[in-house]
Amino acid sequence: MSRILIVEDEAIIRSALRRLLERHDHRVSEAGSVDEALSLDPQGFDLVISDLRLPGEPGTDLIARAAPVPVLIMTSYASMRSAVEALKLGAVDYVAKPFDHDELLETVARVLHQRALQQGEPPDVTDPGGERQTMIGNCPAMQAVYTRIRKTAPADVTVLIQGESGTGKELVARALHQQSQRAAAPLVCVNCAAIPETLIESELFGHEKGAFTGASAARTGLVEAADGGTLFLDEIGELPLDAQARLLRVLQEGEIRKIGSVETRHVDVRLIAATHRDLRVLSRTGEFRLDLYYRLNVMQIDLPPLRDREDDILEIADVLLDKACRRHERDGLRLSRAARRVIRDFPWPGNVRELENALERGVILAEGHLIHPDDLGLGPTTPRPSPPPPPAIEPIAPGSDEAPHGQTAETAADEEEEDLSLEDYFQHFVLEHQDQMSETELAQKLGISRKCLWERRQRLGIPRKKGPRRNAG
Ligand SMILES: Nc1ncnc2c1ncn2[C@@H]1O[C@H](COP(=O)(O)OP(=O)(O)OP(=O)(O)O)[C@@H](O)[C@H]1O
């Protein structure tokens, strides 16, 4: 059901339109002016249909203020020029008044459909520490995941998330919970693989005092702790068969029974499960109950491995690098070209988590202002060239080629060290030594004039540091 805001000052037209849209299952709100529409928060709707001429500001004023929500403009036959103007201002379309019902419904359906397609936008997720992050990546497979999250979250059904380790299954579970009507209630996350088999049933379902050796007091289980909210069972394929039977009862009857108790208790829990294993295959070998698999798999979300998300890898790396730099207070660290190449080509069996860890290593191990392949610790990589002594960099006339004197750009590129381009080298050297050297010394070491050093600083955005400097040149 879509939410539509009608902005129209003529009450008769407004209520006719409302009835028409409500008959077609839309939820409709009304406003008589732009001001009134703004007080209803137009960004909370899926579509705004506004008359062009209104008392006060014209309907087109809503286009920018409702964005990204599309605004459909209504106008009379007499003012087709203003309809064209409205389109130029960004209206999604216009309908001419008096409108033909079918035509209007068709336009509304088309605009809503387009919006739904565009809404494969990454969701925001709040982590347990209260920090908000946006899921990163825009490849088609991830857009499909985002759309699935948006549609599934409010539906209060069981969801099975499948994907290799580190692909973001827990992140998706959080997004589902946070976009659901249960968002204010608890989200309880349990990694079934991390709890010893002998303890998992009592952890999940609780136990009575004396139910087994060591049960010195009664205990509430995690399923009950999630009552009213969401239970996320990660690695559900590792759940022992007895616990599977109890879980099936929770899903079928909405009831739990603590270990050692004869009484059952009603619980209202939404279950989200995740696995990196194929539960169907496990069910063939008797390791997973097929009936539980069917209960879990009402909606399925498949997360692609990072190696299949080629276009996303460097984007994810940049965002995660930024975060790691902030965590370790090492602002301004960048990936060298070679490190970017390695990151792009690495198969990432541990997916985003592995990339996150590699970048963290890089931030900790990098000695200068560039992270090199070796710093990422991904196994054998090309040896890093040792920087000093610095090569002389020829002064570059404005507008001339980047290559040093007497070379073409191509031969220069060929001769470039595997890892550091001359520009990388320059940046690296200046940032590394500017605290200890004067401008004159820096220029001498680089084999360039002070003017050239200054010009390069400007071009590469490395301004001179302010404050006292030894021997300021
Ligand atoms: N699309 C993404 N955008 C940003 N961060 C991501 C994304 N996917 C995963 N991550 C990050 O990667 C790490 C691993 O994610 P998560 O724990 O959700 O994976 P998982 O599939 O549940 O792993 P496992 O199966 O090993 O438990 C987390 O730090 C998470 O924030």
TrEMBL record:
Record keywords, A-Z: ATP-binding, DNA-binding, Nucleotide-binding, Phosphoprotein, Transcription, Transcription regulation
Residue span(s) of domain Response regulatory: 3-112
GO molecular function list: ATP binding; DNA binding
Family matches, as PROSITE patterns: RESPONSE_REGULATORY, SIGMA54_INTERACT_1, SIGMA54_INTERACT_2, SIGMA54_INTERACT_3, SIGMA54_INTERACT_4
Residues in Sigma-54 factor interaction domain copies: 135-364
4-aspartylphosphate, modified sites: 51
Annotated Gene3D superfamilies: 1.10.8.60, 3.40.50.2300, P-loop containing nucleotide triphosphate hydrolases
One Gene Ontology term from the biological process aspect of the record: regulation of DNA-templated transcription
Entry-linked Pfam families: AAA_lid_14, Response_reg, Sigma54_activat
This protein's name: DNA-binding NtrC family response regulator
Native source species: Halomonas organivorans
Lineage: Bacteria, Pseudomonadati, Pseudomonadota, Gammaproteobacteria, Oceanospirillales
